Structure formats: structure tokens, C-alpha cells
Amino acid sequence: MSPSYFLKRIALIGYTLLVVSVIVFAITQILPADAAVMLLGENATPDALAVVREKLGLDAPVWLQYFHWLTNMLQGDFGISMRTNQSVGPELFAALGRSLLLALLSIVLMLVIAFPLGVYAAVRRGKAADFGVSVVSYIGVSLPEFVTSTLLILLFADWLGWLPATGYVPLTDDLLDGLAHLVLPVLTISAILIAHVSRMVRSELVDVLHADYIRAARLKGLSSWTVLFKHALRNALLPTITIVAMDVGYLLGGVIVVEEIFAIPGIGRLLITAIQNRDLPTIQAGALIMATTYAIANFLADMTYAWLDRRIQYE
Amino acid sequence: MLNLDRRHFLAVSAGLSSLAMTAFDANAQSPQRGGTLRVSVDQAVTKLNPLLARVDPEFMVAELLYSALTRVKPDMTAEPDLALSWTSSPDLLEWTFVLRKGVTFHDGSSFSAKDVVATFEAILDTKTASPARLTVGPITSIKAKDAFTVVFTLSAPFADLPVTLANNNAKILPAVVAKSGLARLDREAVGTGPFKLVSYEPERKIVVARNENYYDKGRPYLNRIEVMVYPDSTAEGSALISGDTDLMARLPPTEFDRLKKTRGVKVSRAPSGQFCNVNFGCDQKPFNDVRVRQALALTIDRDNMVNFVAEGFGTPGNDTPLNAAYHYHAAQAMKKADIAKAKALLAQAGYPNGLDVTLIASDRPPVRTQLAIALREMAKPAGFRINVETMPHATYLDQVWKKGSFYIGFYNMQPTADAIFSLLYTSNASWNETRWNNPTFDKLIAQARATIDEKKRRTLYADAQKLMNLEVPSLVPVFFDLLSAQRDWVQGYQLHPRGSVYRFDYLSLAANAPKRA
Prior knowledge:
The complex is a heterodimer of chains A (315) and B (517). By secondary structure, chain A is mainly α.
């Protein structure tokens, strides 16, 4: 990969983020009601609305609001939340940190379980083991998060009493208690990830195992172990990498239901509340963070592609 | 669904509320001091500044940290908080409050009349944008007569001032903060309340600890309270069952039965004045014709409405915003469904073939939609063809609320009859949603405001309720009960019909409570 290509990619990410910020800003302008209406709720009188709008800077023309936001943003200032009156930056990064922790643990658990499961099912294709893995992963894919999490809570908190039902405890407060609170949300999320990643690994691997070059490798007399891990899996992984990259995006913002049920103040919840309350600076910053994660995850996926398959060259 | 006979329950809870203070005192003999209580709430506490609090969890935290001049008892009359006693001029235009001495704020400064004056000036300042500005009473000015006496001057005679000063937002701040430091209160708390702020994470956890200098030497009993935010009510219920939390402040009806069956968990319910209604634009066709409104009122099976909308945890309404939870409620014969009569009224009004109307319901809270759908079905046989349109709450606030002519409203209980009437139904109401503009009604409410004699006021309010019941400016078919749940080791908790009053200074933990750091 050439340095100029690398720089081009970075510039493209920057351009994407700018476009995202314009679109998000435009959409929030079309939405009915603004932060002042939501802040005052049913206590809104015309004079109170005017006061709050002025305080929030909502009385300025739209383009000027956007310009102010952009110039502050370029200086690293995310602005002040219209809902909580706190700086958006620290609030956002704290939420992002909690989501990242959740995402990281879920992905690790997924990798540890999904890959061996997918490989095993592919190798034992058509046998009872394959069928068993299929059924379990179908269940995992089809159960929505709120069902999985509620069932897990019922089982582990209500009946067995082994784990806390819900709530978030920072690991810095109490490491063990913090981890205990993370077990159920991580299980919920990885159940879904494991299901679709293991299915992906299985189907790709099954295809590859039928390819001519695998037959050639076998005929050459390589051990089935070498064939599987050195030749087949490497090629079967490519599409799976894309799936995992998209999953990272989903984990940072898409697991709002899990964050809601387990009361984890993550980035998804932050963003939804911000949208409901028309909290412009938080919506903007949150959308940018999510767009950035998708962009970076995709970028990393492309680089992994190149590393796995030397024939792929990026110019 | 209900194991408790409603009539019996109402009688018991009515008895309870009149005995409330004695009950508190009976509890006061034995409570253990100390311990940490965890209470769960369903929404984040984003406004720590008591002047700006808007939702129940925020009111809860404000009540822990701050005091007001007065407090409202479960029977909805006023009792002393920072004000010890009060008197009014005979014309009810000037009220004098004598303040408690020897009270200190959490920062160590001492409390006096100048703090009260500065706080109310901040509340009345439009720049503060406090919801209390509209609800605290018709105050034009407030002066300190001496260090511990304040005088309120009103723009109109007003008998309810001691109760309206118990306003959730009218918490007393130090003068220096009220004058120029309100921004500080976004992150810290400087009150005179029973607890001091320890830590504040709006979306997760608010921790308070006992104020050793609280003016009530006996209370609070608890050392520490942790207010935990759980947005999902099923998970919140599970946290109570597993013993993570001790008290669930508000319970949706769907969780009531599950928690009731759990050993070691006690559920409570109390009737309250919280209601859902159907607002008519009384100045526009077709609802400007009283017969159309009366006809729609006659299509409702009110007991079934309670079962459907409140899952049985409520009481039927009689098209007035007052129910038994209000001090001046006047009981009238409950309206019954009468489709034939409804049809006849509709025909008289010029709609012999029925009528097409669109009813708008916001999606928050979901009971609004439930009420709209139930009404659509109940009104169908009488010839009302109702098209129900639901929309996001933000859109509703922006486009329909106070502007529409046929939509679902949802209101919390107000401290006084006057507060709810002059919020919603008089011609000069802050939110004159119905545009009913009835001069007779206005006069009754104004007279009652200016009358201190209990019996006369009761008659005036009874007449006002009769008038509403007859003319139906809005349909009020259902009032909601308040529900809560607690572990059996929590002692001294009582649901307050006002909803936003908690009195955690009376709570204590029994010996079997889990020990928490």
C-alpha cells in the first residue's frame, strides 16, 4: 500500500465526515420542535421559549449556527449540550469508553467462540454437529436483543441469583462488581454476533473447501490440518472480516436496546436521548463519532484484506 | 388482575392519608439510624438545579437536597418546612411567612429572609425560565420584613398560597447563588435539605449523604441514598427482586403482579389525580356544539376504560379534572354509557348520519394511544368515526399541543383544585387547550381563589365541577393510581398522591437489610 493511497483514504474519511455533519445538521432542522421546546416541554410560554432559544443560540440563522459549530469543532470543541448544559466532549467520550468496553469484550468472546464453531461445522458438514450448530445459530440470529437479555436476566438474576440483573458499575469503582455487571450484556450481544459470524465462517469455508486449489493441496499430500488452516481458512476469512468490521460499527451505537435494558450509559443511549431532545451539539458529535468508527473499521478491514491476500493491492 | 377490592382499597388509603402524620410518628419510635438505601428511577436526572427540575426523578433529588417554605401533606394541605407559620391580610392580597431560625445551607452559610427573597426573584425572572414562575401563585413582589419574616404581595386575592409555595421547583437557594450563581447548580447542590450531594452522574447514579446539620434533629435516619437510573422497567424490577435495589419509585402496571408475587417485596398503590383526557376545541366545529361533546361522553364505558388504559390500576373519571385525591373533590353520579342517547344528541346537533373526526395522540406516555384507540371503539356504535393519528412527542408538542381541536392530554396531579382549573380550563388558563371560555366557570374559580372559608370554597368548587361535568370541555375518563415497590426491609415509605413528593427523610432500614458501604 503506497503512502499516497493512505493519505487519500484519510482525506476521504475527512470529506465523508464533513458531508455527514452537513446532512445531520440539515435533518435536525427539518425535524419538528427544537431543543427549547423539548427543554421547556409543557411549561413553554412564548417568552420562556425566546429566552431559552437565545441562551442556546437557536435564534441565529441556520447557516451561522452550522458555521459556529464547525469552527468550534475544528478547534476540538464539541460545544455545550443543550439538554444538560455540560460540555459535550467529556460526556461523549465517557459514553464512548463504556460502549467500547462492551464492544471489545463482546468481540473477544465472539472471536473465541464463533471461529472454532464455524470451522467445526464446515468440516463436519451434513453431520449432526453441523446441524446442531446451525440450529443454535439460527436461534441466536432470530432472537432480538430484548428477548435474549430478558431471558438471561430471568435465568441468571431472578432465578439463580448469580449475577446482578442490570446496572453499570465502572471498573475503576470496583473491578469484580463491574465485570459481574458486564457479563449479561456481553452474553446478549455476543449471542447475536456469534450466530451470524459462525454461519458466515461456515458457509465461506464450505465453498473454499470445494475449490480446486484445496483439492490440489490435498493431492500434494499436505495434512488436512495444514490444508484447513493454512490454505482454506485464510481465504474463507475475507468476507468474514467485512462482517466483523460492520459489527464494530453496530456495537458502537447500534446496541441501544442492550444499553437501555442494562442501564449502560453508552453512546447509543446518549445519541437517542439527544435526538429525542433535539440536542444539536450532542447529535452532531455523536453522529460524527459513529461515522468515524464505521470509516475506520472499514479502513482496517481493507488493510486486513491486503495482509491476508497479497494479490490485493491498493493504489 | 386486582386482588384488592377497589372500594375497600380507596377507603383504606383515604384513612391512611388522614392518618398520615400519625403514621409517620408511629414509625418514628423505632427506626434504626444509618445504612445505605438504593432507590431506582426510570429517567435520568439531567436537571440538578431545583428551579429547573421537570420530571419526577429530578423532583426526588431536589427534595433530598433542598427545602421549600412549605410542604404538602398527603391530604394536600400545607405544613411547615422552612416557614414555621403564616398569616394573610383579610383581602388575601398580602401573606406574611415567619421563617425557621438556626438553619444552615450545605456550604455552612446561614439561612434567612434575604435568601427567600432572592430565590423568589430568581423564580419570577423570565430569564431563569423556571416552570415555577407560572405555578407558584400570583406573586408580584416579595420583601423581607426582618431577618426571619417575609411578605408576599399578590396581584389578586389567593387563598392557596401556602400550598402553592410547596411547589416542586420553589426550593430555597442561598441569596448569592440565586442572584448570580445559578449556573453552579448544574453540577452541585447548595440547599438546606436532609441530604447533601456526594456524586452526580446524570444518566446512572446520584449519591447523597445525611446532612448532619439538618434542622430536624431526629431525621433523616439513613446515612446515604443512591438514586439509580434504570431506563427499562422490567430490568428495574429484576434489580429489585435480586436485591440490587431497595425501592422502585414508580412502577408500570405491567410489573405490578410480578413484583407482588415475589417474596420479600412489598408493592403499594395509591390513587392520585394523574389523568388522561380528550381535549375538545370548544370554539370550532364540530365540538363547539355542547351536544356533540355530551354525546361522545355518553359513549364511554368508564370502568372498562380504567381496565383497558390503566390495566385496572386507576379510577374512573367524571369529566372533571378532580378526583378523590384532591381536597375539594365533589362526588357526582358517575356517567354511564348510553349509546341511544348519544345518537339522539348527535342527531339533534345535526349529525344524524354520524361524524368523521381525527383524534391525535402523542406516543409518550403510551397510555395516550391506548385511550385514543379505546375511545374510537367505544364511540363507533353511536356514529363517531374516529381516525386515530399517533405521532412522536416532539412533533406533538410543536404542532398539536394547545393548537389542535381533538387530541389526548396527560397531566400530573396538581397540588390544588385551583392549580388544575387555572392551568387548563379557565379563559385565562396558562394552557387554555379547550378554549371553553365559560364566564360562569371563570367566576366560580375566581371567587374560590379569593375565599378562605373552607365551606364556601367547597360549594364554589362543587358548582364548578358540576358545570364541567355537564358541559364537557374535555373528556376525563380515567385517573391513574401511583404504584411503587420496595423490599420489606425498607421502613416508613408511603406513596404520596402528589406523585412528586417522596419524604425519604422518614425512611429507615430494618436489621435484615443488606449492608452496603
